[in-house]
Amino acid sequence: MAATTPVRTHDQPPTTTHAPAPAPTGREEALLATGARRLLGNYRQAPFVLARGEGCRVWDTEGREYLDLCAGVAVTALGHAHPALVATIAAQAGRLMHVSNYFYNEENVLLADELCAATGFDRAFFCNSGAEANEAMIKLARRFYWSRGEKDRYRIIAFHNSFHGRTIATIALTGTPAYREGFGPPAAGVTHVPFGDEAAVREAMGPDVCAILVEPVQGEGGVTAAPPGFLRALRTMCDEAGALLLLDEIQTGMGRTGTLLGCEHEGVKGDAASLAKGLAGGFPIGAMVCSERLAGALPPGTHGSTFGGNALASAAARTVLATLRSEDLIEGARRKGEHLGRKLAALAAKHPALCEGERGVGLLRGLVLRKDVVDPRVALGKARDEGVLLTIAGGRVLRFTPPLVVTEAELDEGVRRLDLALAHLAAG
Ligand SMILES: *Cc1c(COP(=O)(O)O)cnc(C)c1O
To answer: Lower CB density within 10 Å: C or N end of the chain?
Structure first.
């Protein structure tokens, strides 16, 4: 992280009414220095400190404004400080926050019911993050066969460039070897095959395979949608082999792609699915939902979570689910996503030396930079300098995962700012 930060001002579009950033106070510099010294250093963090957000905008400690089109990596689905979510969290914090899973709590029971009804699954388990949701799903799949006497049936087929989390088990499933390097022998029983390659999956199948684990759209891997028919083919192969189809919907779920779950585009149903990211709009939560026939595989004592399903997180998730409906945000993600896709295609066409094109589904989109021509981190920094926050996926994709409440005008503004950034980049 940079120890000092040049003072930047953003090209404000004429429509904004925000005053220019005030003079530096030295506060940012002090915070950056403390962050560099006291945080572990496992992230490459932008050289400013965010302090406040509203809707699709955030402000740093120096008063600089940014258009947030990454939404904490597909997390703040309702934007920042959504009044309904703020009210829910404040009220629930004053009522009941946590009681442990030795007791039911009202919000959690209602969330389980509403989430199952919305996703078409029968049972829900709650935890605090995506990786934990995948851990639960893996344990469920393996123990399901174990409990039926198939003790050696634990192999899982996963895909190259997939991302399933950062724990010791989930890095074994993640299809990028760099994420495993240096962490000792990976958990056994995983086979990786190319994403989208039906023949390779068929070849890898066997009586020891308990499950196929797949993201409907690979998010971290580079915003790559499964080719048409692929998820359906996986469903068929699982049915034929008596294996389970496990969907990692952590990034694609909760309306992000224009349907509640990403798999709905293909009309495919999994045996279980993991959710997190947007589920409670920024409040930490993870969930694993599954079909009734799997429910008995994790009886009391086999799995659990201290914080999982606490009343505060559950209330937040219930409000997100209700708001997705009341503000028609899922259909909106489809419509606004198509709009963004057209804008990014035009932007790529305008900068053919830098960009290859656009891809993605709904409001999970990416601008694909040309390999070995543009350093994506430099492009990301230039975009930031123009006041738009994005993330990098798959090494060379500028990823857009805006709040689902984003307006087309805000998306246009973001693309305009990125256009300026690319123009600066082209100018060197
Ligand atoms: C983010 C993500 C995860 C990991 O979630 P954490 O909350 O960071 O543990 C797993 N799978 C996918 C597809 C993700 O996008």
So the answer is: C
Mutate to test the pocket of ligand 1, among 128, 164, 249, 254 (most ligand atoms within 8 A of CB): 164
76 by Cβ neighbours in 10 Å (0-12 / 13-18 / 19+) ranks as buried
110-130, pLDDT tens digit by residue?
Answer: 999 999 999 999 999 999 999
How many angstroms separate the Cα of 73 from the Cα of each of 97, 134, 276, 308, 411?
Answer: 26, 18, 11, 21, 16
Mean pLDDT of 312-322: 99
Amino acid making up residue 377: R
Sign of CA dihedral 336, 342, 346, 351: positive
User: What is the torsional sign of CA 379, 224, 257, 355?
Assistant: positive
Of ligand 1's listed atoms, the one at least distance from the Cα of 215 is 13
Single pTM value for the model: 0.94
